[in-house]
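W.,

You were right to be curious about this one. When I first looked at the sequence I had no strong expectations either way, so I just let the prediction run and decided to look at it fresh. Below is the sequence, 403 residues in total, followed by the output.
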Amino acid sequence: MNRLALAAVLLTSVGGWTAAPLVAETLRVEPGEGAGERLQEALILAAPGDVIELGAGRFALTDGLSLDVDGVTVRGAGMDTTVLDFTGQQGAGEGLLVTSDNVTLRDFAVENPKGDGIKSKGADQIIYHGLRVEWTGGPKASNGAYGIYPVESMNVLVQDNYVRGASDAGIYVGQSENIIVRRNRVFENVAGIEIENSNHAEVTENLATRNTGGILVFDLPGLPKVGGGSVLIARNAVIDNNTDNFAPEGNIVASVPAGTGVMVMANRQVHIQQNALVNNGTAHILLTVYSRDFSDERYEPRPVDILVSGNIYGRAGFAPDIPGGADLTSALGGDLPAIITDGRHQDLKVWDLQPVLSLGLTEMRQAFDQANPAVTVPDIPQIFPPVASLSVSLPKEMEARLK
């Protein structure tokens, strides 16, 4: 009995047809001749609950792939064993585009896509697990912008992945809600991890190293979702993020200074706690206003309600990549403080024994040459607060999908 006939038998009930199939299949695709066509066919023909199993080896692909079926798992044999190789890709699209809900992507690699690595849009309850997205030639402006790229989604889990070489952000979550980004390794990207125009995100236990900026929390005007906030950055290792900025000219991240550990721009209620911040040449923590022109009345361009506590600090500020950075180091007689703000923040709490350099800017359009720098030592409380939880709780069935 073929699948459609079997489904007809199993789905018929007194009330008619049920909404979901009762039989799931494993559709196995092996590398080799015609692998791209066979894989795309499996992505089209899959039904909710199906597993598309990718064999070990290298899939040489010339076209991007897409998935628009709910409840599908795409699973390889491991991030170093199953490789979707887009080196010969025609056009500039994504390696893989997902536009359906309850999808699990795990245990395979995407190499050298002409555009983004793996993008999901409007894909609720999506899981990215055990993936590698890499531009194998290292940092180049011609690399795709984003490695792992969920946008406009509710309930997002990005864990245990490796991303290298993105010319914008290795892991980027945008205009989304209820997000966990944990235990990932991001290496030699412009931004290692970026949370943008999103709410209720936990970024924990990640290694961000040799990027231009390790972890970025931004909010931008003019997008459908504006007003990002409630972001926890905790227990991450943010180390040696001193790679020259290689973003294409005009990108917003092209302005990120090399040597930035954690950067917060125009976001609200961001907690930076219990991270290891080491050897970032501009600053371990950089707070700045969005200084470009905008007309979006919903938009707050300043960082508001920022908490810094319980972090471990190594050397910082030894090569500040900001206007007047060399003059500042000379005036201060050595490295700049680990925490720098342009001065246009609101409600900054620093509960670490670290001096804070404020550039003393007060107006939204003030240029750096108008800075009035001053260093202050924070007045910390006697009892340190615990690491906060910002109410990020994913549906239990998402975790169950990884067992």
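Here's what jumped out at me. The first helix runs from residue 3 to 11. And, maybe more interesting for your project: The chain is about 10% helix and 35% strand.

Coffee later to discuss?

I.
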